[in-house]
Recover the amino acids of this structure.
């Protein structure tokens, strides 16, 4: 009896292991790497030497840029294969094609102070920044190289705390706030 049980135990273990999946991506055929953006990070930079600006630093608008970075959750989808005894085997691959699960559809930049007469505190300042196109924003692996460069001087020198909002296709909004930086001509 014990011998029969010992012979059947490995088959039972194989069947249970065969039911484990490394996950599926909604609406995507396997095998793919599904990337979901979970939050963003931003840094204020002096573009002359790529140094990071600290709270209260002063900089000319033409030397100011915001670097975007993104934190993501990557899941690897499975590819089903028929196995011995009718089980389904799941193959997970780290070399799968990356797919953005919830792409970015828009970006908005706002400040806590008036920028000029037409753009008071809380207004959208996106028109004053050189913004990467959505293809670049939704390109896995290149996201940390996206910069928002300010090309319009504020009406007067002031300390601005910028907030960046990335809206995703699902309606979810990822938000990050920059350290206060004094920007002038």
């Amino acid at each position: 009896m014990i011998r029969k049980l010992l012979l059947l135990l490995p088959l039972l273990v194989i069947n249970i292991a065969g039911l484990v999946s490394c996950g599926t991506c909604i609406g995507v055929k396997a095998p793919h790497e599904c990337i979901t953006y979970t939050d963003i990070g931003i840094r204020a930079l002096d573009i002359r030497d790529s140094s990071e600006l600290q709270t209260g630093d002063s900089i000319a608008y033409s030397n100011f840029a915001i670097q975007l970075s993104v934190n993501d959750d990557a899941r690897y989808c499975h590819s089903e294969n028929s196995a011995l005894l009718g089980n389904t085997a799941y193959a997970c691959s780290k070399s799968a094609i990356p797919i953005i699960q919830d792409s970015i559809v828009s970006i908005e930049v706002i400040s806590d102070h008036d920028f000029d007469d037409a753009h008071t505190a809380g207004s959208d300042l996106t028109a004053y920044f050189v913004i990467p196109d959505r293809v670049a924003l939704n390109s896995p692996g290149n996201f940390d190289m996206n910069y928002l460069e300010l090309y319009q001087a504020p009406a007067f020198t002031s300390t601005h705390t910028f907030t960046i909002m990335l809206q995703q296709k699902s309606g979810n909004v990822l938000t990050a706030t920059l350290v206060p930086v004094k920007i002038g001509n």
Summary: Residues 2-184 form one domain.
